[in-house]
Amino acid sequence: MLSTPPLSLYIHLPWCVAKCPYCDFNSHALKDELPEERYVDALLADLEVDLPRVWGRPVVSVFLGGGTPSLFSAAAIDRLLAGVRARVQLAPGAEVTMEANPGTVEHDRFEAYRAAGVNRISLGIQTFDDAQLKKLGRIHSAHEAATAIEAVKAAGFERFNLDLMWALPGQTIDEAVADVERALAFGPRHLSHYQLTLEPNTVFAKHPPTLPDEDAVIAMQEACGERLAAARLRPYEISAWAEPGQESVHNINYWRFGDYLGIGAGAHGKITLPAEDCIVRTRRKAHPRPYLKAAGDRSFIAEDYPIPERELAFEYFLNRLRLDEPIALAEFEARTGLSAESIAGPLDRARELELLITEKRTGDNGAGQSLRRTARGQRFLNDLQALFL
User: Fold this and answer.
1) Distance between CA atoms of 58 and 17, rounded to whole angstroms?
2) Are 94 and 222 contained in the same domain?
3) C-alpha angle 116/119/123, rounded to 5°?
């Protein structure tokens, strides 16, 4: 039987100074003046559209992503978050994260963001190599990255994340490890470590750079992982490392198949409706122009549909298997409304292939069993997830 999981709020701010050649996110190079006031008004009107579906449920985390949210002034972020607090119940100590890019933030603005209610910053560093930054189309330098990190710390943010990319064009193992070393010198308690991949409909897809070969990629991942582990960071998710207790609340809610409201141009959402025995997916109009125009009649929604029952198991495990933690079958039943017996076939096959193991605590019945992916399951994660299609 379906139960309501924790609820988060994602807010998409779609503008960037320039579109990076590897980026497939819904982001748009800013060509005119940023329409701060109009966009904040639209976001708050958008939030009200889905409120009846989540009325009374506390929001455990808010994430301002993009695009480049740090293009917005602290005053605009303050008005936005005040409007959010007036419309939804934020849980005590709710995590409020804002993405920021070096080179788009006046450094004294971080204190004002913190005063507005942001309590976690995620900085898009990507690399500390100036030559690589140019290849990636980034507008900041390594020096500006370091200055921005120090500004975040000076503003009093105890919780901050650094984004790093690896397997960059022509990158060596030593260069990848050097990036990790440079990042760790700033003492982050959370670090996102993403492999560069060539995504469809990007500049890099049309004009692909020369990337490290598969053997180099594996060696790079292992070498960087050893250094991160030596710094007492744990890979709680396939591309996220953190000290115990410093994991991203917002991202963990995604991976545990939690609910989230998605507002802003192109934002996606997921809402569990036990009374209707369904889980709905939502998506907002993608381009900023039609999205802003929709504020007049609140026609923000581009898609709103229940997830078909046949797809629920795959969607659940597509997310859940990213986390390095046991998966209770009871949680699977509560989050999807399906029975554990409905996935007996894929589970048997996953165990046969040594991709998953079953852990049983004393006194548990079958529904109380937990699943855990093996090292082999992590290496062949795509194959493991595909078993539930």
Assistant:
1) 34
2) yes
3) 105
- pLDDT tens figures, 88-115: 999 999 999 999 999 877 777 999 999 9
**Nearest CA-CA partner of 234 in 222, 223, 246:** 246
* Residue indicated by tokens 């369904």: 278
**pTM to 2 decimal places:** 0.95
219, 237, 254 — which closes off a domain?
A: 254
Q: What is the DSSP string of 329-365?
A: HHHHHHHHS--GGGGHHHHHHHHHTTSEEEE--TT--
Task: Give the model confidence (pLDDT) of 307-327 as tens digits.
Answer: 999 999 999 999 999 999 999
Nearest of 152, 237, 230 to residue 192 by alpha carbon: 237
3-state secondary structure of 265: coil
CA–CA separation, 244 vs 68, rounded Å?
A: 28
What's the confidence (pLDDT) of residue 361? 58
Task: Please provide the size of the chain in residues.
Answer: 389
Q: How far is CA 87 from CA 58, 79, 81, 119, 175, in A?
A: 11, 13, 10, 19, 47
Question: Which residues, in sequence order, are bridge partners of residue 268?
Answer: 283
Question: Over the stretch 21-74, which tens digit does the pLDDT of each residue have?
Answer: 999 888 998 888 999 999 999 999 999 999 999 999 999 999 999 999 999 999
Where is mean pLDDT largest: 93-107, 220-234, 349-363?
Answer: 220-234
Residues 216 and 315 in one domain: no
Is residue 77 within a helix (H) or strand (E), and if so which, with residue range?
helix 74-87
Whole-number Å distance between alpha carbons of 7 and 54? 8
Range of the domain at 365: 310-386
